[in-house]
Amino acid sequence: MTADSMQALAGRIRSWAREMGFTGVGIADPDLRQDEYWLLRWLQHGWQGTMGWMGRHGVKRSRPARLLPGTRRIISVRLNYQPEGAEPWSVLQDGRKAYVARYALGRDYHKLMRQRLQRLARRIEAEVGPHGYRAFVDSAPVLEKAVGREANLGWIGKHTLLMDRDASSWFFLGELFTDLPLPADPPRRQGHCGSCRACIDICPTRAIIGPYQLDARRCISYLTIEHDGPIPEALRPLIGNRVFGCDDCQLVCPWNKFAQPTAEADFQPRHGLDQTDLVTLFGWTEQQFLDRMAGSAIRRLGHERWLRNLAVALGNGPASAEAVAALEARRAHPSELVREHVAWALNRLRSPSGG
After folding, report:
1. Binding residue positions for [4Fe-4S] cluster
2. Residues 146-163: what's their mean pLDDT?
3. 22 and which of 14, 17, 247, 338 could share a cystine (Cβ 3.0–4.6 Å)?
4. How far is CA 67 from CA 41, 62, 189, 274, 296, in A?
5. What is the pLDDT of residue 353?
6. Annotated binding site
7. Is the dihedral of CA 158, 161, 163, 167 positive or negative?
8. CA-CA distance, 11 to 211, in Å (whole number)?
9. In this predicted model, what pLDDT tens digit does every residue of 302-326 receive, in sequence order?
10. How many distinct helices (H) and strands (E) make up the chain?
């Protein structure tokens, strides 16, 4: 195909992607060598914590053609997820309630976005015939934020998240690797954070150790989602009532006021997760957890770590009779992980100094 026909195809791809509900689409050159240095430096510092797979994949993340040979371009898509009407600050300030990261209040995004990317690939195939491609949605070693930046979908902020003037950072990313020689968009490497350091200053655990530097070992999202062992005691009081992820660095960002609420029904809060009491969630049986979290990103956490996180939040909350009773009911839980965090929480609630 000629350069003109590729240019025309790129325009149609953008139109098709938006028709499918994506709120942003761009085309990136897969050359990410400038990001490889920072990836390797991050790994050398051990900032990935127990996420061993980050190191095992090596430079596949920064060299897309090693992940999918023949890759010439990456179609990067964006989908807003912030639900309208959710009141994050009021929940964070109420120690009786559970705070769940906004992205996990509704249905899991992976399947929805992957299906749409597959539809987009088939639409391209109907236009140009068979071609090499593969869709990814947080499912392979992909530097998705760097790809999004190269596709002109945003700039990487000081909190290390991709962000855009019109959507802040409240969006999911997905990629379609392709062997088509599509014209690439100009990268958006110039950021708009200026001298602002609001995200750095608000981080409860000081996980953002400097502009564009994140030590995942201290990050509440890592501790409550990816980490499968005991949460370090020194960090537990700093977690507050955040039981699955953390949004503080996004909530405080000045660009957040321009964020557009999601139009996706699947991303609206389910089971009252945007306003539910900790005691209620802590009382769920394993079967109730599995049933109610079906189709949710939270389900992969498992009931044991769900209880671990809730126990920490209860220990950080008010010492009510209901909270103490709920913890006492789990004191003899079969899991050592749960028992240890329950004991810590009870000690916090019963100690005059709160810990």
Report:
1. 193, 196, 199, 203, 219, 246, 249, 253
2. 97
3. 17
4. 21, 9, 24, 37, 28
5. 62
6. 61, 138, 162, 173, 193, 196, 199, 203, 219, 221, 246-247, 249, 253
7. negative
8. 35
9. 999 999 999 999 999 999 999 999 9
10. 16, 10
Tell me how far apart the alpha carbons of residues 223 and 171 are, in angstroms, rounded to a whole number.
Answer: 22
Which positions are catalytic? 138
Give CA separation, 74 vs 80, 259, 281, 323, 343, in Å. Answer: 20, 25, 41, 50, 49
Give Cα separations from 170 to 14, 116, 204 (angstroms). Answer: 20, 19, 20
Type of residue found at 26: G
Helix (H, G, I), strand (E, B) or coil at 56: helix
SS3 per residue for 104-172:
HCCCCHHHHHHHHHHHHHHHHHHHHCCCCEEEECCCCCCCHHHHHHHCCCCEECCCCCEEECCCECCEE
Percentage of the chain surpassing pLDDT 90?
Answer: 86
| Percent of residues in the chain assigned helix, strand, coil, to nearest 5 | 45, 10, 45
pTM score over 0.90: yes
Across the range 169-189, mean pLDDT stands at 96
Instruction: Collect all residues with Cβ–Cβ distance below 8 Å to 148 and sequence separation of at least 6.
Output: 26, 28, 76, 78, 154, 162, 173
How far, in Å, CA of 327 to CA of 312, rounded? 10
Q: Where are the domains of the chain?
A: 3-84+104-178, 277-349
Is 173 within 8 Å of 145 (Cβ atoms)? Answer: yes
Q: What is the pLDDT of residues 232-290, one digit of tens each?
A: 999 999 999 999 999 999 999 999 888 889 999 999 999 999 999 999 999 999 999 99
DSSP assignment of 222-272 equals IIIII--SPPPTTTHHHHTTEEE---HHHHT-GGGGGPPPP--GGGS--TT
Left (φ > 0), alpha (ψ -120 to 50) or beta: where does 129 sit? left
Average confidence (pLDDT) over 211-218: 96
Binding-site residues from annotation for cob(II)alamin:
61, 138, 162, 173, 221, 246-247
Position of tokens 């990816």?
226
Give the count of alpha carbons within 13 A of 93, CB side only: 4
